[in-house]
Amino acid sequence: MPPTVDISAASTNIPYNTSTTITWTSANTASCTVTPNNWTGTSGSQNTGNLTSNRTYTATCTGANGSQVSDSVTVTVNMPAVPTVGLTCNGNSGSCSIAYNSSANLAWTPSGSYISSCTASGNWSGSKSTSGGSESTGNLSSSKTYSIYCSNPGGDGPTTSVTVNVGAGPSMNYLRCNGVNTPGTCNISYNGTAAITWSSSNTTICSLVATNAATGATISDDAVSPSGSRNDGSITANRNYSIECWDANTGVHAPALSLPLRVVVNGPSVDIKARQHGSGGYSNGPISVAWNSTVDLDWTSSSATSCTASGDWSGSQSTGGNTQTSPLTQVKQYSYTLTCTGNGSAMDTVLVNINGPNPDDPGEVSVLHPTAAGLSDYCYTGPGAYVSWTYSDPSGSPQSAYEIEIDDSGSFGNPEVDSGKVTSTGTSYSSGAGYLAFGTTYKARVRVWNGYDQVSGWAVSSSFKTPNFAYPDVDFSWTPVPPQVKKIAQFNDLTVFYDGNPNGWLWSWVFGDGGNSSSQNPTHTYLTPGSYQVTLTATDNANQVCSETKIVNVQRQIPKWLEIAPR
Question: What are the Fibronectin type-III domain coordinates in residue numbering (predicted)?
């Protein structure tokens, strides 16, 4: 027969930490073992002992023929009820309030059967007694939350929390200069006053420190009330202010302000302006004024203790004012600089350009015919004019250029001669011959430039008239060519006269060998061979005289051949 086995429990569902009885029977078996307790016997009954978790019991039996058979039963253990836990701070549930830098007492009270563990979390940690207890938070500077979790053996349980609210500690509200908060910069004038104000909370005393911003040297270190104000005057250098406040009862200091309050003494500024004396508003320049003018200077400054002039003026000056220069007679750029000092220095300059004066209008403008000036001969050219003048300039600047115009209408609207601007220091000008017409009345005018390229007005000459008609155009010829010694040479006048009236025309011949003639077409006999300068001078009715000279080569007589018959 095959082996059989049956295992059962007196109760398969028991309370936590209680026991039941396990019973097993078998047939046709040689041995049996019940696990996990390793009970033996082909039948039997055993107490499980108190159980805290579900457990399965298995009976395994072996028959005579070596075959095995098994049977199992499971005992279910019911977990105990979920525990509760109370948590208080200073006896208060949920939350409590304490002063800054003080402590609170935390107390916890678990309740329930079979509490297996209590664990702290939040701002505390670790295992806590399952029977309850208390701890101090230690001194707190900020609010904290504390939690505790108590569980049954099944891991079930509540978490309870309490918050400890911490009152405000010492703090700095502000540090100000003239209403500017730290960190910041407060600007004041040189030797000015800084209105320092401060405020703190939950403190009993403060230390206000002022240091030199450049060197770090302490200027003042004063114990002051937690909130207040004061005026620091006569400040001439940049400063840093810092403040530290604390509660003298607890020794707790307010968090320091991150950066100091900086008091900056404004550096000086200066503004100088100029104008031509009495001529309206001032300008920062550059300005331009006439030569020999005076200039008004006006200046203002701020945060300055003294000012010094340089450039084209000098000496100590007030920190604000005005003055008038002496006449400015150099044609240049004048520079007026003012440097003012205080917490540092500042400089400003105004530039004044002097316009060169205009030269005087040319004086003593006179006009000569080129023939009178020895510059031309009307026998060969047409009329021209030789213009001269005198030059003067109030500043002594020399003449640099001139312009001449000659016009027959006097209006100079379309002058016959216009030299244009001629760069020259000379005070005379020749138009050149042939630019003017005969028998015409003209005027000349002159203007000049000085070394500053300033131009005068026009100066006009008196009227002058060119000759009524052209001078004689002298010419002559002779025959035979060449003349022979001791033979008559005929000279022929070829002169052209322009006055139209032959009455009063005159001829004067010089033959170069001491002979002469006043005839129009003379003859002359040379006694010796050679080259002779023959000059004809012609005079017209206006007594305008011109001459022409030519070389006449005189040869020996040509021999005559005389034929003589042979005898």
Answer: 369-469
Whole-number Å distance between alpha carbons of 197 and 103? 34
According to DSSP, the residues that pair with 465 across neighbouring strands are 441
From 464, 475, 331, select the one nearest 398 (Cα to Cα): 331
Q: Residue 234: which residues within 8 A CB-CB, separation 6 or more?
A: 191, 193
d(CA 419, CA 399): 16
Distances (CA, A) of 506 to 14, 381, 509: 181, 21, 10
300-356 per-position pLDDT tens digit: 999 899 999 999 999 999 999 999 999 998 889 999 999 999 888 999 999 999 988
Instruction: Please state which of the four CATH numbers 2.40.50.100, 3.30.70.270, 2.60.40.10, 3.50.50.60 is assigned to the domain occupying 363-465.
Output: 2.60.40.10
Beta strands in 361-485 (DSSP E): 363-368, 386-390, 399-407, 417-418, 422-423, 428-430, 441-450, 459-460, 464-465, 476-479
Q: Give the tens place of pLDDT for each residue, 210-262.
A: 999 899 999 999 999 999 999 999 888 899 999 999 988 888 888 887 667 88
pTM exceeds 0.70, yes or no: no
Are the C-beta atoms of 164 and 144 separated by less than 8 Å?
yes
Answer whether 92's CB lies under 8 Å from 86's CB: no
Distance CA 448, CA 435 (A): 22
